Amino acid sequence: MKNNIEIEKLFQESFSNYTVKPPEKVWTKTSRKLKFFNFFRFTYNKLNIFYVVVLIALLISILVELQQDTDNYSKIIATEVYEKTNIKVHENNFEKSKNQIEETNKNINHNKIIYNKKQTPVYKTVLKENKKPEKNINKKNKQDSLIIKKQNPDINLSKNKKIIPNISETYEIFFASKYSGCAPLEISFFNKSLNYESCKWDFGNGNNTTTKNPVTIYDTPGKYTVSLTVFADGIVSIVNKEIIVFESPLADFVINSNNIFAEEEIVFTNLSENNKNNYWNFGDNTISDDIHPRHTYKKEGIYNIKLSVYSEAGCSDSLSNYNINVKDSKYKIEAPNALQANTSGPEDSYISSSATSNSIFRLVFRYEVAEYNMFIYNEYGQLIFESNDVNKGWNAYYRNEIVPFGVYVWKSYGKFINGRQFYKTGNVTVIYSN
Fold it and tell me: In this predicted model, what pLDDT tens digit does every residue of 227-269 receive, in sequence order?
């Protein structure tokens, strides 16, 4: 034992200064083994088997969810296809039922149509002896098959049977472009019924038609019931819907004068009907919502006045293109509307432009006149006075005799010194002074 220890020391001392370099493959294999063992150890900052397991689990759950959605979608598609196919099957069965009726009618001696309380046509058929109607009808598909029922217990049931065709795929549907509005109300109707032979519309306003998609106009406010009747193999189906027509307002107004000047107030009288709200536009960038507004134009010109009115139901009407001519105030012509005649005798009818007199009728101008003509007529249209002098007026006398009291018409026309023409008419009432 002692010798072995000595030999081992001697061996270590002999080779202590020597180093052996292992081949490269040794380190490569060792590195792979270390990575493999580390992969199965949990280390939060390195990829390992635990992370891989979690990722695989997530992928599997996502795939399962997608598969469930795909299955649901496939079921929906299958349901739609089945419904469409079922409709076609119903149509084919219905055609077969009609053919069976035609075959049965070949053996008929007598055929009548009777109506029950609901006005549903019932086919009363008497069959020949020794022949029976075909019974190869699919009992499961009752919707599209013929229903054979006994007609009356007092009748020989072996020879008399009631055949009722069930037209189950006739759908009566219609809609309108609008169901309420303001009179006059134009409405378009659309017939969306299926599997029918003919139709009839009743609009509730005295009008009816057999057109598929008609149009009608309601002029009078009120409630109307629209009926669509469709006919299919003797079966009558009716659908009703209600139309409401509101009364529309009517816009109208007048002004207090036809001879309008700038800087003078105008009174507007609203004559509209069924109007809850009123909106005025005076044409000079001013508006008002008063019922009977007052307005003053600042300068001469032609202005377009518009009145818009609205009812409580929201219906509207407007009056526009109402033009008024506002004149410059310097061209205003004033005239009295009454003349107090002097019963003691005719007065001198000449009067200066600055003077006034209750017994002399003449026109007052604000702007200098170059040409002037005035005429006065009695109630019979007879000319009783004329003048071409702006300072000469009428004293209520004709041929040196006082005229009877009453209303007389006057008319004047001419030119101002700037060449602008004028024309004005009016009435004057002659009264007697005490």
Answer: 999 998 888 999 999 999 999 999 999 998 878 889 889 999 9
CA dist 220 and 201 (Å) reads 19
Closest CA to 422 of 346, 366, 356, 382: 366
Q: How confident is the model over 93-99, as a mean pLDDT?
A: 55
What is the count of structural domains for the chain? 4
- Alpha-carbon distance of 372 to 182, in angstroms, equals 55
Helix H or strand E segment including 63? helix 49-105
Going by DSSP bridges, is the β-strand pair 160-164/147-149 parallel, antiparallel, or unpaired?
Answer: antiparallel
Helix (H, G, I), strand (E, B) or coil at 74: helix
Range of the domain at 351: 332-432
Query: What do you get for the CA distance between the two ends of the chain, in Å?
Result: 179
Q: What is the pTM of this model?
A: 0.48
Residues 339 and 418 in one domain: yes
Q: How would residue 81 be classed by pLDDT, with cut points 50, 70 and 90?
A: very low
Peptide bond into 133 cis (omega under 30): no
* Helix, strand, or coil (residue 61): helix
Q: Are 351 and 414 members of one domain? A: yes
Answer positive or negative: Cα dihedral of 284, 287, 291, 294. Answer: negative
pLDDT in tens, 110-143: 333 333 333 334 333 333 333 444 444 333 333 3
In a domain, 82, yes or no: no
Tokens of 56: 């695989």
> Residues 235, 238, 239, 244: what is their CA dihedral angle, to the nearest 10 degrees?
160
Residue 392 resides in a domain: yes
Given 204, 231, 246, the domain boundary residue is 246
Instruction: Please identify, among 223, 246, 269, the residue that sits at the C-terminal boundary of a domain.
Output: 246
Instruction: Please name the residues in contact with 155: beta carbons below 8 A apart, sequence gap of 6 or more.
Output: none
Same domain for 264 and 239: no
On whether the CB atoms of residues 397 and 406 are closer than 8 A, the answer is no
Give 148-194 pLDDT, tens digit per residue: 233 333 333 333 333 333 333 445 589 999 999 999 999 999 999 98
